[in-house]
Amino acid sequence: MLYRIGRALFRFMFILFFRLRALGMENVPTHGAVVLCGNHTSLLDPPLLGTPLKRMVHFMAKAELFDIPVLGSIISRVGAFPVKRGGVSRESIRLAVQLLRDGNMLGVFPEGSRNNAGGMGKKGAASLALKSGAAVVPVAIIGNYSLFRRMTIVYGKPLDLSPFAGASSEDLEQATEAIMKEIRRLHTAYSKG
């Protein structure tokens, strides 16, 4: 219930203040395990990633956020779970894989931090998808959250990561690069229009 209310409020805010345009929502499976993989430029990216969709999106969030009295309670109730700074714990990975195996949707930013926009993606998203058998949907967030300027979110077609199912470090790097390449392609293609 809290998630639906929050999603409605964010949808209203994004449409009113950022003229949100969402494209490709039909590419997101309506059931089953899904990993949404998006580029990351702002603290507003997590709510933006899930706002246009009817399904709940779970996120890993910095463990420190759960220590903030009101915020910690709210983000727990809307599907976030803690991850320790400096690396993902085995417990967080197990929880993420279990959420996916239970048919949920997980939002991941393969770049890691917001400041790594041009860098090589981290291997966690590919690893989670391969371990759980989840569909991987690349997502491009286009715009800079300037008031009354257009923000666009583009959901791409699910990627086939089966060629990288060996799960070696090299396979994960190649799978991650395939995800990042498609996010960049979507970003470039839709930034022009």
From TrEMBL:
Coiled-coil residues: none
Annotated Phospholipid/glycerol acyltransferase domain residues: 34-144
Alphabetized SUPFAM superfamilies for the sequence: Glycerol-3-phosphate (1)-acyltransferase
GO MF, any single term: acyltransferase activity
InterPro entries: Plipid/glycerol_acylTrfase
Alphabetical UniProt keywords: Acyltransferase, Transferase
PANTHER family for the chain: 1-ACYL-SN-GLYCEROL-3-PHOSPHATE ACYLTRANSFERASE
Identification of the protein by name: 1-acyl-sn-glycerol-3-phosphate acyltransferase
